[in-house]
């Protein structure tokens, strides 16, 4: 493999310099973390599935006019993306109570929220990504009011679209996390959707059985993580029924490299 300059390594992905200025290569690892990296593990084959799932979702979002960083998938674990300046805010959209909101507000997991909630978390691992309000975001200049307006609009639009997409394949979109970035055209900055959309950053429950098909399987030691991610890919039509071709290929390569 040719040596490329690594730009950044996160918990689940690595960014490398891209082939042209203004582009990056986003590499999906099998590493999984939870609870601000207090829990660490590997989900063999996860990176391959997330790369494919995220490609699919970003492509569909692009088709309905949501600007994204996605350019194209390059191979099993990599995609070409537009380089952007990440807004240091994690945007969480919730339709159903689960996870931290259930804990913080004493809500029963599974409670359908009377309306969709958008929350913001300041991206800072050392602080454990604290929840913040738009007041904090404006006060500390993490994003402008106009940018926050665009971000909230896009988040709602993405939620509406994804809720329908997943409902169509028997999955309840409980909550999910988005990240946005800035692209500069001369002096003008515009907001685009960045990062990934995959079972790592979404809660996805089977509509009939309530089974968790996302990273909560890892967080809560439920087992069957990769099978759950595969099930999401399969329902989205990305894996042939009854076959795990994508994963088998990944496993094959990995084992060969050992
Ligand atoms: P939470 O209930 O733990 O706040 O998580 C809400 C959603 O955001 C859930 O789908 C998982 C996702 N998420 C991330 O992708 N990264 C994170 O660091 C956190 C805390 C949550
Ligand atoms: N808190 C993140 C999650 O549970 C992962 C992490 O911060 O290590 O999705």
UniProtKB/TrEMBL annotation:
Pfam families: SAICAR_synt
GO molecular function ontology, one term from the record: phosphoribosylaminoimidazolesuccinocarboxamide synthase activity
Reaction equations catalysed: 5-amino-1-(5-phospho-D-ribosyl)imidazole-4-carboxylate + L-aspartate + ATP = (2S)-2-[5-amino-1-(5-phospho-beta-D-ribosyl)imidazole-4-carboxamido]succinate + ADP + phosphate + 2 H(+)
Pathway, per record: Purine metabolism; IMP biosynthesis via de novo pathway; 5-amino-1-(5-phospho-D-ribosyl)imidazole-4-carboxamide from 5-amino-1-(5-phospho-D-ribosyl)imidazole-4-carboxylate: step 1/2
Annotated family: Belongs to the SAICAR synthetase family.
HAMAP family in the cross-refs: SAICAR_synth (MF_00137)
Protein name per the record: Phosphoribosylaminoimidazole-succinocarboxamide synthase
